[in-house]
């Protein structure tokens, strides 16, 4: 996709709802200066070109005398629309045949098929959203938990970029003062107070540092907490995983029409997604007691933010369990000690294992699963994360922030050492450039292509 011609006022059309679903209605989106006129040409009802913005109209879509569908048309007159252009949303019945006919009729009347992400790209180009907000739209649509939804929502509403814009403005001010010094270089004047500049840079550095470190947490909330279920063969790892996932599946399938295929290795507990690392591997691995297997399991455990370690009390002596716990502890990752197959234990036996302070469960009998879920939430301590805080979840943003940090370090070095103003100015400009990349103050066609081509058509 080339972005070069996109600012032109051609009118685009696409299905905005997902195709092929079982929903009752579909929404076709039209945007561009001719959106209302083109829709009006196939619509029988009121004259749409004479109606005010933000109104809905009932009528039929026709090709000649042929009635294709009864529809509702929503009108948005630019700039009061998502794209800031004239926009129309046509709600039709959700039939592939109807949708194809309506879209091709609109194209026949002068619209063209929209490219991936083109509606949101226009919103960005026309100033409705900045770049990080546009990216948040994609995250919002993809969000599948309360936490990821909240972060995307916060970012879309500008929380994240507002903070950066303010910092950038302060820095622009200093850049221009230092550049002014360059014009007077023979006179050896300093317009930019070096102490104030240093102060500002340090301030910005702290904020950026916080944003960069929020990435780990933000990423966990967005993509799920990576966890591993570990333990010797036959302790009941797969049984536990299935118990956790099955319950989830049952909950999901109760809600009509929400059957999901991707739920495979994820569970959602009170809005937090937990993602099981390589659980397929757990199902296959029966050789983890062998040297190679142990090494592989260790590698897997290191990727986790939380380890659920299972013991089978009918297989392992308590001293043996103790040794394994010490081994897991050495990884320095939080873990939960689980004694599985509690259904096979007598009360006196349980008392003996109590010294390990474990959670007793029976994966097979589905006992203790709720307690385990509470413990999962406890351990990752996500309840304390305030998702209202500005949080970075996008790898592109983190990279730009890290580059900003590097430039700021150079600026700081430049202030402390005999570096000429022109080098200082260059480093500040570099930092400004990287900050601008996040909000879209600095863009290239490649960058835009890259971001928006990841969107679906219709977004
Ligand atoms: P994995 O090798 O660690 O994945 O272990 P599996 O999940 O395949 O379980 C090994 C055996 O232990 C199977 O026969 C399970 O039915 C059984 N098992 C798992 N959990 C329990 C439990 O809580 N109680 C009892 N009695 N048996 C269990």
TrEMBL record:
GO terms for cellular component: cytosol. One of its GO terms (molecular function) is GTP binding. PROSITE patterns: G_TRME. Its cofactor is K(+). Binds 1 potassium ion per subunit. Keywords: Cytoplasm, GTP-binding, Hydrolase, Magnesium, Metal-binding, Nucleotide-binding, Potassium, tRNA processing. InterPro entries: G_TrmE, GTP-bd, GTP-bd_TrmE_N, GTPase_MnmE, MnmE_dom2, MnmE_helical, P-loop_NTPase, Small_GTP-bd. The keyword Manganese does not apply. It is found in: Cytoplasm. CDD domains: trmE, TrmE_N. Mg(2+) binds at residues 238, 259. It comes from the Bacteria. K(+) binds at residues 234, 253, 255, 258. GO terms for biological process: tRNA methylation; tRNA wobble uridine modification. Belongs to the TRAFAC class TrmE-Era-EngA-EngB-Septin-like GTPase superfamily. TrmE GTPase family. Homodimer. Heterotetramer of two MnmE and two MnmG subunits. Exhibits a very high intrinsic GTPase hydrolysis rate. Involved in the addition of a carboxymethylaminomethyl (cmnm) group at the wobble position (U34) of certain tRNAs, forming tRNA-cmnm(5)s(2)U34. This is tRNA modification GTPase MnmE.
């Amino acid at each position: 996709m080339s972005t070069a011609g996109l600012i032109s006022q051609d009118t685009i059309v696409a299905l905005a709802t997902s195709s092929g679903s079982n929903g009752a209605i579909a929404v076709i989106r039209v945007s561009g200066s001719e959106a209302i006129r083109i829709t009006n040409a196939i619509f029988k009802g009121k004259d749409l070109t004479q109606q005010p913005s933000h109104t809905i109209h009932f009528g039929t879509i026709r090709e000649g005398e042929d009635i294709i569908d009864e529809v509702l048309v929503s009108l948005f007159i630019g700039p009061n629309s998502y794209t800031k252009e004239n926009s129309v949303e046509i709600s039709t019945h959700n039939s592939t045949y109807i949708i194809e006919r309506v879209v091709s009729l609109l194209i026949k009347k002068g619209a063209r098929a929209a490219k991936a992400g083109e509606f949101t790209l226009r919103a960005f180009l026309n100033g409705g959203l900045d770049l990080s907000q546009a990216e948040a739209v994609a995250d919002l649509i993809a969000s599948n938990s309360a936490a990821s939804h909240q972060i995307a929502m916060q970012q879309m509403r500008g929380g994240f970029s507002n903070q950066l814009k303010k910092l950038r403005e302060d820095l622009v001010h200093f850049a221009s003062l230092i550049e002014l010094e360059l014009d007077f270089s023979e006179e050896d004047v300093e317009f930019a107070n070096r102490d104030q500049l240093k102060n500002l840079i340090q301030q910005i550095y702290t904020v950026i540092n916080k944003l960069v470190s929020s990435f780990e947490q933000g990423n966990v909330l967005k993509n799920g907490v990576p966890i591993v279920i570990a333990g010797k063969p036959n302790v009941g790892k797969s049984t536990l995983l299935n118990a956790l996932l099955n319950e989830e599946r049952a909950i999901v399938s109760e809600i009509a029409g929400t059957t999901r295929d991707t739920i495979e290795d994820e569970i959602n507990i009170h809005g937090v997604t937990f993602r099981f690392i390589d659980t397929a591997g757990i199902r296959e691995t029966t050789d983890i007691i062998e040297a190679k297997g142990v090494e592989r399991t260790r590698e897997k455990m290191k990727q986790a933010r939380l380890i659920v370690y299972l013991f089978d009390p009918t297989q392992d002596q308590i001293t043996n369990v103790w040794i394994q716990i010490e081994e897991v502890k050495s990884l320095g990752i939080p873990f939960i000690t689980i004694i599985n197959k509690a259904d096979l234990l007598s009360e006196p036996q349980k008392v003996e294992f109590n010294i390990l302070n474990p959670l007793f469960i029976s994966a097979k009998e589905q006992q203790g699963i709720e307690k385990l879920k509470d413990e999962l939430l406890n351990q990752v301590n996500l309840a304390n994360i305030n998702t209202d805080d500005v949080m970075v979840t996008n790898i592109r943003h983190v990279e730009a922030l890290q580059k900003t940090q590097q430039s700021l370090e150079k600026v700081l070095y430049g202030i402390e050492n005999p570096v000429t103003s022109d080098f200082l100015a260059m480093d500040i400009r570099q930092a400004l450039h990287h900050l601008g990349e996040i909000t879209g103050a600095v863009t290239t066609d490649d960058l835009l292509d890259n971001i928006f081509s990841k969107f679906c058509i219709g977004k």
